[in-house]
Design a protein that fits this description.
Blueprint lengths: L1 H17 L3 H31 L5 H43 L5 H22 L12 H17 L2 H20 L5 H25 L1
Length: about 210
């Protein structure tokens, strides 16, 4: 519920900033309420199942999984609704931001990824934690993933492709947390290195190109 409320708050604030139409706002609000409604039902089902069947039972598992699946379906519907409405406001502005950096050269893209890798190894050696390919600060996987996502974003200047690449980079970074190889600080630090170094290198290649 906490995550749902945070997401709802972000969407509602975006609606105010983007000045969506009243109908669009109603559709987004209904989607948010539907997700919250499904989550409340899911919590109620889980509580009743735990009360009736404290131990493991196949039917109890099915009941919990089905209730959780209902929340997932509601969340997917809300995500589609949110994308169809907010993308018409956000993606054009995001495209303008990407166009500021222009189209990067192939050489600049390769060099930026290599420099990010070198920076990660240097920082790890200075901190004395982890190996170049495992553990330590910063997360090399997160750095390279976000470096590639940033380079693809600048090269394509396509908002949707950019967001999908960023989503993949986030998934790669999240996997390091799930495997308990890195802490949140190490992953965030690596992500920032990947983005910032790549942007700086691509801007340099653009200025001398």
């Amino acid at each position: 519920m906490r995550n749902h409320f945070i997401a709802a708050l972000l969407v509602l604030v975006s609606c105010l900033l983007l000045k969506v139409t009243p109908i669009e706002f109603c559709l987004l609000a209904l989607s948010i309420l539907f997700v919250l409604f499904a989550e409340l039902l899911n919590t109620a089902v889980e509580s009743v199942v735990d009360l009736v069947s404290p131990g493991f039972h196949p039917l109890a598992k099915i009941a919990k999984d089905t209730a959780a699946g209902a929340v997932l379906v509601a969340a997917c519907g809300a995500a589609v609704t949110g994308y169809l409405i907010l993308s018409t406001y956000i993606l054009p502005r995001y495209r303008e931001v990407l166009e500021v950096f222009g189209t990067a050269s192939d050489l600049g893209t390769v060099v930026s990824v290599l420099i990010v890798t070198i920076v990660v190894i240097m920082v790890k050696s200075m901190t004395g934690r982890g190996t170049p390919l495992h553990g330590g600060i910063p997360s090399g996987h997160a750095a390279v993933a976000f470096s590639i996502a940033t380079a693809v974003s600048v090269n394509t200047r396509d908002p949707l492709i950019s967001l999908l690449c960023i989503a993949l980079a986030v998934m790669v970074s999240h996997s390091r947390l799930l495997m308990r190889i890195h802490s949140m600080r190490e992953v965030v630090f690596g992500s920032l290195i990947g983005c910032i170094v790549t942007l700086v290198v691509l801007l340099i290649f653009k200025s001398i190109g």
